[in-house]
Amino acid sequence: MITTNKIPPSTHPYADVIHRLEAGGSMLPDTPENLMQIIGIYKAYAVPMDFYWRDLLYIAEQVFLEPVPFFKYFLSQEYLDRQNHYSGDEADLRIWRGTGSAHPELLEFMNKGETFKSSKLFHHLFHDRINMEFAEACMRAMLWHGRDMGMGQFDAYLDSEEYIANADRAITAYFKGNPVMLGLYKLFPEMFLEKVRELSYYSNLGLFWEVMAPVFFEMSDIYDEGGFKGVPDAMNFLVNGIFAIAGRPIYHHAYINGECFEIIPKSKGFTWLYEAALPYVEAVFYRTAPFRGTKSYNAQAKQVPDEQHDFHYGILYADVFPVGTAGIPPTLLMDDMYHFLPQYLKDYYKEHCRGEDDELIQLGITFQRSMYNVTSAVIQALRTALLYPLDDENPNHLQKNREFFEAQMDRFLRPEARLKDIQTADYR
Amino acid sequence: MLSLLLIIPLLGIGLLNLCPQQFSRNIAAVTILSTFSISTWLLFGLDLSNPELQFTEFLPWLEILGLNYNVGVDGLSLPLIVLNGFLTLVAIYSIGENNNRPRLYHSLILFVNSGIAGALMASNLLLFFLFYELELIPFYLLIAIWGGKKKGYASTKFLIYTAISGLFVLGAFLGMTWLSESPTFDLENLTLSNLDLDTKIILLTVLLIGFGIKIPLVPLHTWLPDAYVEANCAVTVLLGGVFAKLGTYGLIRFGLQLFPEAWQSVAPVLAIIGTVSVMYGSLAAISQRDLKRMVAYSSIGHMGYILVATAAGTELSVLGAVAQMISHSLILALLFHLVGIIERKVGTRDLDVLNGLMNPVRGMPLTSSLLILAGMASAGIPGLIGFISEFMVFQGSFSRFPIPTLLCIIASGLTAVYFVILLNRTCFGRLNNDLAYYPKVILSEKIPAIALTLTIIFFGLQPSFLTRWIEPTTTQFVATMEMQTIALEAEQPFISN
Amino acid sequence: MPSIVEIAVNTEGFSTLVAAVTAAGLVETLAGDTEFTVFAPTDEAFANLPPGTVQTLVQNPPQLARILCYHVVAGKLTKDDLVKLKEVKSVEGSPITISGEDGFEVKNATVVAADIEADNGIIHVLDRVILMG
Question: What phi, psi does A423 have (nearest 5°)?
């Protein structure tokens, strides 16, 4: 607690959390139970995420504007074998260990499912599969909030002449020899453009998660080897990961008849940190939109904010209890993670609440805890990038850090925020 | 054969008190299952072409007093005996896992079962009265030991009211037997035709007050909300499901059957009292804040239908009255069983606190879904048993008492009102994140609810399975009544209304 | 006078910067006639970045160029000019805040050597790599 000696203690309602952050900690209290939970859930999240990113890129690059994309969740072998750019033996830059192609647990699940070994089509129709709908919901949150957030240069670029020209070339090439679609394109060019913009976000999110999946896998491996001593270690691993990969390019390439169309070329200089990670955290962790089927909101009664930036329906604010309601994105995600829980986490859930019966909600709350840790990593990374070290000698610098942390905590002052809940172990 | 239904539960009591207490529940269940099977078997052995009492047994007992062990069943009592077994099974499983005196509880439940079966099959007035009074002791104990906060008050009130009810019934029975100079209290020896109408009306009124407390009818109902609410839900299932039905059973068996012509005279008053009960019950239910109290008041309302239908005395209405007795018992049992589960898991019955129980994982999805179904059944949604019986009641009574019937139909609309309030408060909305760490509903709690639900749906879709047993007997009652009334009218044409 | 690039190449402690500028293909721009103000992080500043950061950037020249452009402002601005302006727009597009209150500070970096004149601009040496946002 170097900081508190040099500047007076914070008077913020979340002063405890702020002091912990200033001491290099996480918003999530450092207990072995929390560490075990978050690492376990990272592992369970990484496996479906390995599918998400592959399929997101598959849709953005291959399915493209297919008018009836029934088979968009049927990932091709090529994309299953596709090497991760930052892990595996064939990586461009091997930052993380782990496999380059799809994770073995994922392949096993895709093969067998919950039910039994069967055709892809059966598993798809029986909904015995990875719920890509969740990934698409995240993508849509980024697309919808992108304009309003104004973060990075990605969303602004989608409106530029250059982008429209690139998209136009791809659209005409894709529907070459299809007068109906080309005619429609002539009539409603904006609709087609908007679809391409959406696909650009598919690519954006896919490239973002391509990095996160191996990070989470490696964290699980390190934990299994006894590597992490506490929650701050896990957070710092994420902070380092964010910096290591910050400069990875974000782009959108579409492959039409074997030809590569650079809708957003790498040369635009879009980076993982500014164009993907930060908008993702803002759009998905903080904002999103109310999920259908969980609660009724009355906009006239101001139950939904007027301004998009006041939206607060992300995982950091989420009411996890409606998980289990059919078809809503939170249920889809929890269900995906449910298949890949490590044994120690399963045993842990059995001892609490309704045991196996409400595992879906228990793991949802664990997920919420783990995402508070990820958000802490983002906050610490931003502090590192834009402000001062925690052990800075200059009190003015420490005061600036303090103001930054307090501003971040202000976002959790609204009653829906779960920051207070995750401070205790009773919230499960 | 019928005596087995009385003896087996008593043997069961002996056995479960000899065995370790963790077996009490299973012993009780097996005992009731066997009597339930016997009664069901008897039901299929019932000769439907014969409206008289069947499977009769006779054993002289205290002949000087005219008390004989004289039992028999017909289409009126046997379905109720089967129902008695069914609901006793529900009560055995409805008490929950944390019963710290299982031996006593299950002994009392078995005792209740035996006693109610005895009252339903007794064809001797004094024997009926004995069983009728005998019930009070186990019920008093069940309310007083397993009850809620005000159990002492509620159980004493219950005891005083029902004991007075017994006095009125006994008074009427003695009067009936002595004034008609009948040698015994046996039903078949009793002919009241030699009494004059005024005497009959007086006797019938005394009898009606006696049974009216038991049913209960407004304004004799005040013991009911306290007893139903303070008693454990498992006990309430029996209280409302079978115990209160002894009142309506007595009304039909000893009122309608024995006083056909006097019945015609008091019927308009009865219809009004019934309608008042229906309206009062429904309106009082709407204003309740307590889940259980709301269901208790709804019960007063639904018992009122039975009275209106019995008063009307047409073939269809009496059949409807008996069907409504069974339908009300099943629905009430389901409602109280589910309310009991909710109370046990959530720890409150306050409608202002309850919320979001439909939540799929942390709530009680099955319990709330069945609660919705029970509410629908109670409100008379077609396809469920409540619709069938209420429809028969309304259809049968309308020709005789159009205005009371119309008011009853309006009240059945009010049923939907308070059930919508109830369901909206308990099942829908957002589950409270801070409190919603409820224990899960276990299988032994789900099974009775599912069994009741299936029965409610089955009879709703296939009502003839319900009415075929009852119809010959009720038709016979009505035919006798009409015959005697016509005979009477021939003598005294000015009497009829 | 030597150009910005020549100064950087000939001064000790800027080898990472020079390598990065070369990798990003910005040598010609910074050696040309247009005048720039360059905030030049020292080798130590680059070394203070978490591991892997520079490596990923070097593999992706456009992304690297973008970070470097954030350290460049059009025109020739001395310390006094900058402190007066309080905020300048970088070539990358994002603003850079300047403070003179606590020494000469550029965003969260401190200027260790100010006003090094070059033929086509001016160099201020930073103790930290500055980042957009």
Answer: -70, -20
Mean pLDDT score across all residues of chain B: 91
Whether B46 contacts B77, CB under 8 Å:
no
Sort strands A252-256 and A259-264 into parallel, antiparallel or unpaired. Answer: antiparallel
CA distance B286 to chain A (A): 25
Residue A361 has pLDDT above 90, yes or no: yes
**What percent of chain B lies above the pLDDT cut of 90?**
74
Residue of A95, A271, A386 lying closest to C108 (CB–CB): A386
Q: What's the structural domain count of chain C?
A: 1
Residue-level pLDDT at A197: 96
Kindly tell me the number of DSSP H helices and DSSP E strands found in chain B: 19, 2
Q: What interhelical angle do A32-58 and A104-112 show, nearest 10?
A: 70
Amino acid found at B81: I
Beta-carbon pairs below 8 A across chains A and C: 68
To the nearest whole Å, the CA of C56 is away from the closest chain A CA by 6
pLDDT class for B495, splitting at 50, 70, 90? very low
CA distance A215 to A130: 20
CA nearest B428 in A: which residue? A295
How far is C100 from chain A, CA to nearest CA, in Å? 13
Give the separation between CA C63 and CA C56, rounded to whole angstroms.
9
Q: What is the pLDDT of residue B491?
A: 64
CB contact under 8 A, A244 and C67: no
Out of A295, A319, A361, closest to residue B361 by CB:
A361
What digits encode the pLDDT tens for the residues B100-137? 889 999 999 999 999 999 999 999 999 999 999 999 99
Q: Tell me the mean pLDDT in the region A98-103.
A: 88
Q: What is the mean pLDDT of residues B361-373?
A: 94
Reading the block at residue B431, the tokens are 């589950």
Q: Per DSSP, which regions of A69-136 are E strands?
A: none
Q: In chain A, what residues touch C55 (CB-CB under 8 Å)?
A: 93, 244
Of the pLDDT bands very low, low, confident and very high (cuts 50, 70, 90), residue B496 is: very low
* CB-CB neighbours of A191 under 10 Å: 10
Token pair listed for A394: 């200059």
C105-106: strand order across its sheet: C72-74, C36-41, C121-126, C109-118, C105-106, C95-99, C87-89
pLDDT band with cut points at 50, 70 and 90 for residue A113? confident
C71-124 pLDDT, tens digit each: 999 999 999 999 999 999 999 999 999 998 888 999 999 999 999 999 999 999
Report residue B124 as tokens.
Answer: 């001797």
Identify the domain containing residue C87 by its residue range. 4-126
Pairing between strand C121-126 and C36-41? parallel
Give domain status of residue C36, yes or no. yes
For residue B497, give the DSSP letter.
-
Indicate the pTM of the whole model: 0.88
Tell me which residues of chain A, numbers 294 to 313, contact chain B at a CB-CB cutoff of 8 Å: 295
> Which of A352, A374, A365 has the alpha carbon at shortest distance from A422?
A365
Q: Residue C131: inside a domain, yes or no?
A: no
> Which are the contacts of B41, defined by CB distance < 8 A and separation ≥ 6?
none
Q: Which amino acid is at B269?
A: V
End-to-end CA distance of chain C: 35
Measured CA to CA in angstroms, residue C79 lies from B4, C86, C88, C105 at distances of 109, 11, 12, 10
- Per-residue pLDDT of B429-457, as tens digits, reads 888 888 888 998 999 999 999 999 999 99
Domain CATH code at residue C12: 2.30.180.10
- B299 with B237: CB under 8 angstroms? no
The residue among C54, C105, C108 with the most chain A CBs within 10 A of its CB, best to mutate, is: C108
Closest residue in A to C92 (Cα–Cα): A269
- Look at residue A411 and give its three-state secondary structure: coil
pLDDT in tens, A337-356: 999 999 999 999 999 998 88
Task: List chain B domain ranges.
Answer: 2-491
